[in-house]
Amino acid sequence: MTNRVVINADRTLGTINRNIYGHFAEHLGRCIYEGIWVGEDSDIPNTRGIRNDVLKALQALSIPVLRWPGGCFADEYHWRDGIGARETRKRMINTHWGGVVENNHFGTHEFLMLCELLGCEPYINGNVGSGTVQEMQEWVEYMTFDGESPMASLRAENGRQEPWSVGYFGVGNENWGCGGNMRPEYYADLYRRYQTYVRNYGDNKIFRIACGANDFNYNWTEVLMREAGGYMDGLTLHYYTVPNVWAEKGSATDFEPKDWFGTLRKALVMDEIVTKHKTIMDKYDPDKRISLIVDEWGTWYDVEPGTNPGFLYQQNTMRDALVAAATFHIFHKHSDRVRMANIAQTVNVLQAVVLTEGGQMTVTPTYHVFEMFKGHHDAELLDLAHEPAPYTYDGVSIPQTSASASRGKDGSILISLCNLSHDQEAELTFELRGLAENNAPINGTLLHAESLQAHNTVEQPEQVKQSPFTAVSRQADGTVRATLPAASVAVLRIG
Ligand code: AHR
Q: Average pLDDT by consecutive 10-residue portion of the chain (495 residues)?
């Protein structure tokens, strides 16, 4: 059965905020330490302590925004522990993640340097669960105050005269859980109080982000919007794709077609969740001033055998690539409200884009999706109607394909596509309406692998890689036909 796509190229639906392609890096397992930070004295080539290979790979993604330091770690993080001479910084226990020693060598200066090297915006997550209002106020002053003040002087003593520009600040993380087990009414009041002291100094304007709900907790969104909506610019949402039950999530690489189907089916639930939270937000904020920020999303499997369960290290296959691509399409569809999202997490943790082993690294299938979709950053979302064929497994159906289209600043059109089926090719026909020119060149890129379980390792880094997508042709009537292999992601650039 054919999957039919109609694109009205002369009808735009708004901008796809590039921050939807944002990232999240927590002090968790080998994400920050080893994955990003190796220190200036490391044998691994580095730029002021940040490993060059990972830096280069991330720079190629044009990451727009990076969230740090957590996650659950954020509500136990005390920023003063991470400034000053590194050898004197406090050694603490990372109680949430593996009980390992955290030496605080990667702190505020190192994170903001990383953002400068990546050319991305910092999104700092403050501590409400175990931190004080004063601590949060002083952190903002330390980073952004330009002039004479106690915190600006301390910053200068630590080697940074100029303030940084910090655009995004989160007031707590998962305060319904690891961030303090609060009720929404209590957190809403705390949020109102803490955010008062997250000040705009000089030209630095902070976008204040309140901790939002986990997946289906609509009451949290209702209470936050009702009690504190007037004090926030963004409200978060977390949703992870967990194939099975929490205790036995399933392996990242050792899975059957039923797990493949079940995972993708669960990933598509993001659409329902976002829609329902948006409906509540619309009730209190019909002008859509407040952004919905999905600042944690991605797949969550059992850790790789033999690795520390607290480190959340997992491999990444085409299944993850399809979760990423289909999720981006959902975010595009909701881009009137979803203006930032941050995949969990950048390196070595959960649905990572980069994996490292000592001094070596590889990029994952998810990395390739981020790379292939770069043309959607800040592009105009095009009106698209899609009639997908069904993908049925054990009597349950989900759409076989998913598609999204945008027009970039250079006028070219980018169409991104997924074939979710684990074993069936997808035939697609595209009607391209409203184009000034009907013969513009079409270039395609495909992400596909020999097996569903194929994944990249430092020994075999090209098991899943991009290749030219050639099964595309323009018909005499102007329609375009494409055949996508089973379990693949593709992009077509027209013009
Ligand atoms: O991303 C891993 C953890 O998942 C984060 O620390 C927390 O916010 C969430 O529960």
A: 92 97 98 98 98 98 98 97 97 94 98 98 98 98 97 98 98 98 98 98 97 98 98 98 90 96 97 98 98 98 96 98 98 98 98 98 98 98 96 96 96 96 97 85 96 97 97 91 97 95
Give yes or no: 174 in active site: yes
Which pLDDT does position 82 carry in this prediction? Answer: 98
Q: Could you tell me how many residues make up the chain?
A: 495
* Residue 75 near ligand 1, beta carbon < 6 Å: no
| Residue 361 near residue 57 (C-beta atoms within 8 A) | yes
Atom 3 in ligand 1: residue holding the nearest Cα: 71
- 3-state helix vs strand vs coil in the chain, percent to 5: 30, 30, 40
- Peptide linkage before 71 cis (omega within 30 of 0): yes
Q: Is the CB of 70 under 6 A from ligand 1?
A: yes
Query: Measured from the CB, is residue 71 less than 6 Å from ligand 1?
Result: yes
Q: Which of 102, 110, 141, 174 is catalytic?
A: 174
Measure the N-to-C terminal CA separation of the chain; round to a whole number of Å. 29
- DSSP letters, 432-460, are EES-S-S---EEEEEEE-SSTT-B--SSS
pLDDT of residue 246: 81
**Residue 483 Cα to ligand 1 middle (Å):** 38
Neighbouring CB atoms inside 10 A of 202's CB total: 11
Which run of H or E residues covers position 219?
A: helix 218-228
